[in-house]
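Review form for a predicted model. The reviewer records the input and the model, then writes brief findings.
Reviewer: anonymous (R2)
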Amino acid sequence: MADAIVTTEDGFLGGQLRLRQPKSGHRAGHDAILLAAATSAQAGHKVVDLGSGVGTAGLALARRVSGVSLTLVEIDPQLAELARENAAANDITADVVTLDVASSADIFAAAGLPQDSADAVLMNPPFNDPARHRASPNKSREIAHVATEDTLPTWIHAARRLLKSGGVLTLIWRADGLADVLAALERGFGSVAIMPVYGDIAAPAIRVLVRAMKGGRAPAAIEPGIFLRDANGAPDLHIQQVLAGQAALAWASL
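Model under review:
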């Protein structure tokens, strides 16, 4: 029997979302909220958050867009249970599935996630480069943070299988791994759009938000970037509004 997780309760979206999450190990932050703020969905849409952790990105999206049919997919049973509790505590309806993203189509279908069923998939996969990231003695933390060479192809394959034709995948990844993202999207996806995320105005991008359509045919586009801090080094006002749940990113209304 696994040891109980020591948790904290933290506010997101300016307190609109209260989440319990592990005190140590993988903890939710800006990436999950930016991902949710970049994901387009409408009431009635089937939305799947792959690798949801305690549910941060999916629940933040559901808080912004009422009426979505949300499924949170998480491999760690303890995090999945926290996601289930967080959905209930915030009065958000969500199915929570304890499942490895690498599972077969049959296993996904048995869990209520058949092929060609989702309108939108969002994901924040493990993305640290193992060559530059010291392995953690906490195995769940390592799984949540460290990518292997198969991580992106496996996760994007799962998203492609779940999505309807014309369905949209939105993901966040480290900026220096953009080439790997584009390579993994070559099969089955098009209409790729890239939104760089900069820590400040004078430094290279630290993250990329990427949006791709299953079966899309539009040419790739690099969208205007977003900056966490302005030219004076102060928190960017628009991004502060996004993080506080008072605004969304441009893609959210597509």
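Findings: Residues 125 and 229 are 24 Å apart (CA to CA).
Further findings: The chain has one domain: 7-253.
Recommendation: see findings above.
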